[in-house]
Amino acid sequence: MSEVEVALRREAARRRLAGESPETIAADLGRTRQWVAKWAARYDPHDASWADGRSRAPKRVANRTSEEVEARVLAVRARLAENPWAQVGAEAIAWELEKLGGPVPPVRTIEEILARAGVTRSGRASRRRTSKGLPYPAPAAKQAGDVVQADLVGPRYLDGGVRFHALTQIDVASHQAGVEIVTDRGDQRVLGALYALWERHGLPRRLQLDNGGPFVSPTGLGEVVRVCLHQQVTLVFIPPREPWRNGTIEHFNNTFQQRFFRQERFDGLARLVERTIAFERFHNSQHRYKASGGRTPDQNTITTPRAPLPASEIPTGWPEHGRIEFIRFIRSDQRLRVLGRAIPMPDGSAYQYVTATLDLSPTDGENLHVSDTDGQLLTTARLATPRRR
Asked: Structure pTM?
């Protein structure tokens, strides 16, 4: 409150008590008659601060959270924080309170309790990028198994310089995650890890990958792609140099790095593999996601997973049927770059994302069908795909 305003209120009360009319005082002070009457009535010779005004905040807050509930919220948060793998956000706390019985405050109230107590986990804003204003043909993930994103992380090192990689995957719809540790990036190592993930979580309908080895390279498609096609899995390759298109697995990789690998020490690969499986189970049974209504990945995985064919039943050659989808951005030269080719695109194709679908067919050979984000066919090209050994 400004000193000028307080002085005006005191002057109005003094003059009114001296017998001047409210109209005269209001005209002199640039206020209304009602304002003069209000502060004249508020005059109190026993209160030196009568002209300072009064708080408009309610004296009693309706539905105020009790101290007992606040203490329960903070106690649950502290217990969760003891486990470096656990989520400690409002949703996780609400679920723990639900299991304990008793009142469960709204998530927003829990967030306010945490903020007042100064125990919120601060984090830097995500650096995830998007191409502003450009539609992107992301594969639809309406239910578990529709789209699984995978990534090969590493190399990482244990004490003593032991080197390893982690093959991670996550279902975009259910957020069910899987991790397999491999000692190198060789085709057979990665395939063995994929089989282990498939046996635990089932085959996806689409497997979305980046453009690095051992999945694909400028020299052609690898053994991993061949086996996936025999398993009737559609491969989806995101645009080069746009890792945020695999944002779900990138987020999980960060969780795996921050909450698991940096929190423990392992005396060897065997111990690392054991603890990795434990972390995977904990994540799938305990972590909750807003995108899935606060349910855990295990609660979202309600369909019967599709079992893979045994490795012994996979033919040695390439399949006659299968689909590989390449999502690409067409630049000003109007060329589609895929598998080392630069395929001319129709006029007007520049500055948009397209999906180039490679269909393997015993009758039509290998045709590349290129569609825009609306699914409209733009062009078809013949592509004799180089297949590296």
From this structure: 0.73
